[in-house]
Amino acid sequence: MEMGNELTKGHVTNEGADVERTFVAFVRADEVNLQQGGAGVIASGGGVSVYQGGSGPVLANGPVSYTQGGSGPVLANGDVSFHQGGSSAVLALGDASLQRSWVGAVANLRAVAIGDRSRVGIVLAPHVTVEDGGRVVATTRSALAFGAALGVAVGVTLGAMLVKAAIAAGRQ
């Protein structure tokens, strides 16, 4: 592992973190470069670049790029790209592009490009390009039905929790 700061109890915090061939539980830095390693959580004030590695959730105030790697949910204030990798969900303020990759759900304010041999479960974006060999699994109708069902389920669950709390408060 090469970095300007030391690894302490699985946490890396400094201006720039280059994590190579190791696993850290938490990385917080202005720029994060992860190569052939892993990170539990990445919080970056700038960009994140991962090559042949993986991570849990990613929060970045810049572009995020994965090459032959994957992640948990990604929240980025910039472009997000996956090449031979994937993620559970992506929320990006910039463009999102996938090449030979998979993502469960993508939502952004600009454009999504789904390349050859790429799959996305659900896409929410003003402009979506699906190249030959790419695929969006859920149609607009099924995505709306899923969202409505999820909304009902969350509403019923929260309502039941509020009723239970009110009953418990009335007994005291």
Structure description:
The structure is a single chain. The protein is an alpha/beta fold and 172 residues long. The chain folds into two domains: 128 residues, no CATH class; 33 residues. The protein has one helix and 17 strands. The N terminus is likely disordered.
Short description:
This protein has one helix and 17 strands.
How is the secondary structure organized here?
Layout: E1 11-20, E2 23-35, E3 38-44, E4 48-51, E5 54-55, E6 58-60, E7 64-67, E8 70-71, E9 74-76, E10 80-83, E11 86-92, E12 96-99, E13 102-108, E14 111-114, E15 119-124, E16 127-130, E17 135-136, H1 140-171
Descriptive key words:
172 residues; alpha/beta; 2 domains; 17-stranded parallel β-sheet; globular; disordered N terminus
- Counting helices, strands and paired strands, the structural category is alpha/beta
Relative helix content: 10-25%
Mean pLDDT: 86
Strand segment tally: 17
Radius of gyration: 19 Å
List the secondary-structure elements in sequence, H or E. Answer: EEEEEEEEEEEEEEEEEH
The N- and C-terminal alpha carbons lie at a distance of 56 Å
What is the overall number of helices? 1
Q: What form results from the Cα inertia axes? A: globular
What is the number of domains? 2
Task: State the major sheet.
Answer: 17 strands, parallel
Strand portion, in percent?
A: over 45%
Uncertain parts: 1-9
